[in-house]
């Protein structure tokens, strides 16, 4: 399999299958275009419970699988918001924990499961919810980034505090928790949320410069209501 990232504002990843039988999977509706010589099949990738779990993690119940019938066939998967597409070799990371909606597509050797935050407070107030996406296995996966990506390699004990919704993913070695913004003036007058996501190294952290949900909320507030 070979791939290339096309575009900048609303990018897509185009995959070329080098051998018959190679495949990619994505959530329902994730495919943008394809050549002849590709067969599509749809299933829950692991059964009903896994499908339900993915729905809680921001993905679709059914997943679409695209398999090459001939060598050289191509298929593209496009991002849903303005930003970037980030290729990740899961074999090299040892697995990633990602926010809802970060997964775009992957090779079938990559497992997409759900994982729960270890602390209830992190799930309720951390902006990512109780359920996160867990990528494991081997092979290539592609993540959607809102805005631009920022990658930090945290040293043991090194801490980065991130505003709600700006976390894309992090390696399993990174400790994830939520802390409250200190000071009443900061809470009521600071213009930020009540909570920050605290990530403690060692490990790689992937951040994004835009929080699309926050952006959409600002647009919604500008729409006149009757």
Any overview of this molecule?
A six-stranded antiparallel beta sheet has the order 5-6-3-10-13-8. It has one domain: 4-Layer Sandwich (Double-stranded beta-helix), CATH 3.60.160.10. It is about 15% helix and about 45% strand. The model is unreliable at about 120-130 and about 185-190 (pLDDT under 50). It has helices at about 50-55, 90-95, 120-125, 185-190, 210-220; strands spanning about 1-5, 10-15, 25, 30-35, 40-45, 65-70, 75-80, 85-90, 95-100, 105, 110-115, 130-135, 140-145, 150-155, 160-165, 165-170, 175-180, 195-200, 205-210. With about 230 residues, it is an alpha+beta fold. It contains five helices and 19 strands. The protein is globular and about 60 Å long. The longest helix is centred in the last third of the chain and has 11 residues, at about 210-220. Strand 1 and strand 2 (about 10-15) form a beta hairpin.
CATH architecture name: 4-Layer Sandwich
Q: What structural class do you assign from the helix and strand content?
A: alpha+beta
Radius of gyration using CA atoms only: 19 Å
Give the strand content.
Answer: over 45%
Please report the first level of CATH classification, the CATH class. Alpha Beta
- What quaternary form is this? single chain
Terminal-residue CA separation = 53 Å
Mean pLDDT: 83
Please identify which CATH superfamily we are dealing with: Mitochondrial biogenesis AIM24
Q: Counting H and I runs of at least 4 residues, what is the number of helices?
A: 5
Percentage of residues assigned to helices: 10-25%
Q: How many domains, in number, for the residues?
A: 1
The count of strands amounts to 19
Provide the succession of SSEs. EEEEEHEEEHEEEHEEEEEEHEEH
Give unreliable regions as ranges.
122-128, 186-191
CATH topology: Double-stranded beta-helix
> What is the makeup of the main sheet?
6 strands, antiparallel
Overall spatial form: globular
